[in-house]
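Input chain follows. Return structure tokens only.
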Amino acid sequence: MSQQQISLPAKLINGGIAGIVGVTCVFPIDLAKTRLQNQRAGQQVYKSMMDCLVKTVRSEGYFGMYRGAAVNLTLVTPEKAIKLAANDFFRHHLAKDGKGLTVFKEMMAGCGAGMCQVVITTPMEMLKIQLQDAGRVAAQQQKPVMMSPSKLVTTNTLLSRSFNSGAVVTAPRAVSATQIAKELLRTQGIQGLYKGLGATIMRDVPFSIVYFPLFANLNRLGKPSADKSSPFYWAFLSGCGAGSCAAVAVNPCDVVKTRLQSLNKGSNEEAYNGVVDCISKIMRKEGPTAFLKGAGCRALVIAPLFGIAQVMYFVGVGEYILDNSPLRFLK
């Protein structure tokens, strides 16, 4: 690594293509994860991932499973590209002495990558969650729930008009990510898009600290010799294994982040005042198992997502595109 010049444009292309392919494949599972994580005790609309997907198709149609996919596909390219390229960049500089990276240095490189990506990840997740969770809120509000006026939650005006306009909600009115972003910028400024930044850092930095060193060491096991790369299928399996382990490890932080970033609440669902308040209320009212909600879905989302990313990365799709296009001067 230390002897190799890093081609940043190639790494950005690899990360971008991998993100688009991966998100397209696993987005319905990610939607199920968001809805399962936002359910409160005693107000469950969905029993499992499959139950969530079946009910979503019945009530919102096939494309209901891809609610929020547009914003994710738009921003996942820079997000994944920054994550992979930043890790490569930090590993390159930490290995300047010509020796292999220690596990600690690998963790430091992952930490740097996680800190870089939250610039894109936080607003992307903020917008995506509003769109993904709209169907759950609409379905939950169809249930007869007694709610005292003191427990009414003040929500974002645009979202309230869109999803809570009637006593019985059959389907959420379509609201675009652009509309939500404009409303947040108008009412709260740029910090509106970065609500839940602390929780996002709590999730993404530990994820990268776990994922990148674990992947590097798993991938090393598949090398036929020290001077040869592991085969692409081993890179895929290593990415899947490392991704699923890291995803489950940080799932409690993902639950907290999802709750904090959900602006529109269902009937009798309370708001949270920061990370500590969210953790204490979940622990007190739902118990520690609530922090594992959606863990299986998240593992199923992250495993192929990062498996595909690492295959693109190690096969060198970006390098091939740059070598065979007018963009070769960027190398």
